Amino acid sequence: MKKVFEGSCFCQSSSIINSIIYSLSEPPYMSEITESDIQAAKVQTNNGGLETIYFDMEHMATFYKRIKELGMHRGDEQFIKMHLFDSWESQIAYIDDSKHYLQYESKMMRYCIHKVLEEQFEIDEIVWIDEAGRIGNPRWENAQIFRGENGKVSIPKQVFFSVYDKNKSPWIIKVFTWDDDESQVNIYTAEPQEKVNELWQSFQDYFAEKGPMRGELFTPMGEYIESNGNTFDDVVLSDEVKDKVMMNTVEFFKNIKKYGEHGLSTSRGVILAGKPGTGKTLTLESIISAFPQYTRIYATSESLMGRHHIRHMYKIARMLKPSIVFIEDIDTLGASDDDDYYRTPLLGEILTALNSIESNDEILTIATTNYPDALDIAIRDRPGRFDVRIDFEMPDRDARRIILKKYLSNFNIDESLIKYDKIIKETDGFSGAWLVELVQTSFSFALRDDSNDPTITIANLESAMKVVKENRVLAKKQRDSMEESSHMYGA
Fold first, then answer.
1. How far apart are CA 32 and CA 338, in angstroms?
2. Which of 108, 293, 414, 460 lies 20 to 30 angstroms, CA to CA, from 273?
3. pLDDT tens-place string over residues 66-75
């Protein structure tokens, strides 16, 4: 008599059964006995299931036959039937419904699904079934779910959840994730489709109401980004421009629900247009800082070049509304030669995202452009997509004085020697960005004079003015050359 297996395990999990069959199919047992010789002489059990199995040469065939009848390699379907119907041979029909999740949404949804199951169900068993039908340990993934160094959380990667709802009805939720983070979630149940739909909605509601991305600032790829904290005190705008910005962005978003209560659109698009360095990006950053408790998606043109990235961005914005979508340099996505027969796929995608069958209620879209006239007419002249265009002009004399004094106030300066009127006159046509560059270059010259206690003098400013003017000429030549090449090749 030979003692082949000893252990304790609940029969329905079948892990002990799988262990037995694999122990019988590999050396040393198969080298000593054949399949036809296998018989069981004695099986000791306890209340929890199989405990100890003994074999001899007389009764092993009977045992082997019984093992086969129990369904050793029953796989997914048998596991599901055992949980739903207490019999892997059941012929009762059940629902198998699935959804796919891509990119970072996959990780976020797997986290939310696990939380819903913990909160709304009694979890009976968590396992994984491999390709050979063997039941083993579930597979988890340590993923960045929340912001910061401590934001990593263990989430299901390849898992079967056997659960019971509040009415004690059995369900199975399967999570399978590929190496590229695409995941498929299956719901198995004998409950009606209506109940399945409610569970899917529970997953989505958790993501929208309690999920990690609600009230966060992130890119279209789901990467958290830090606000630099700039406010409207840091950007110098004319009263007219600031008033338009406040009315169409900040004040609109603060009162967005009131617009809806009065039957008005709660979706709005605003284009901030102007030459580089006129304060468009600073204005975006100020709006970001004004709404730290709301969802904000910040997109550069490069982050939207992938297939369906624009569509996916607005899908997430709708789920997490009210939300604000920021798009820098939209002209690189929505440019056109105004030929009705030719529009790029990206342009078509952004037009659809802004004004399609899917509602963008409670979504504010703010885009910047250096070249507003290059935008497709369907973007620049179509309320419902972009309703307002706000033009950012080069700073006038008074604005240049404010900008210079603001940035020079951070340094030691020789006030008695600084001739602001002369500087203001010489900087006619400078953008805010070039004025900041003037101050920085002046400080570089001051450091050369005294690195221990640098003080900006009129001589430093005059030297810096010469350098900055030369750089502006070179920058303009480069920009003109790039534009000429674009026209030459029909871009």
1. 82
2. 293
3. 554 444 445 7
- Please give the Cα distance from 77 to 83 (Å, whole number): 10
The CATH number of the domain covering residues in 397-487: 1.10.8.60
Nearest to 436 by CA among 464, 463, 458, 416: 464
* Residue range 139-155, pLDDT digits in tens: 999 999 999 989 999 99
- Measured CA to CA, the distance from residue 41 to residue 31 in angstroms comes to 20
Q: How far is CA 95 from its chain centroid? A: 30
The pLDDT-based confidence of 340 (bands split at 50, 70, 90) is very low
User: Max CA-CA distance within the chain?
Assistant: 112
CATH of domain 81-212: 3.30.160.110
Q: For residue range 407-417, what is the model confidence (pLDDT) as tens digits?
A: 888 888 876 65
Q: Which residues contact 322 (CB under 8 A, 6 or more apart)?
A: 253, 256, 257, 266, 294, 295, 362, 363, 364
Superfamily of domain 232-392: P-loop containing nucleotide triphosphate hydrolases (3.40.50.300)
- DSSP state letters, 410-425: TS-B-TTT--HHHHHH
Q: How many CB atoms lie within 10 A of CB 329?
A: 19
Cα distance between the two ends of the chain = 84
Pairing relationship of beta strands 170-177 and 152-164 according to DSSP bridges: antiparallel
* Nearest CA-CA partner of 392 in 282, 233, 469, 247: 282
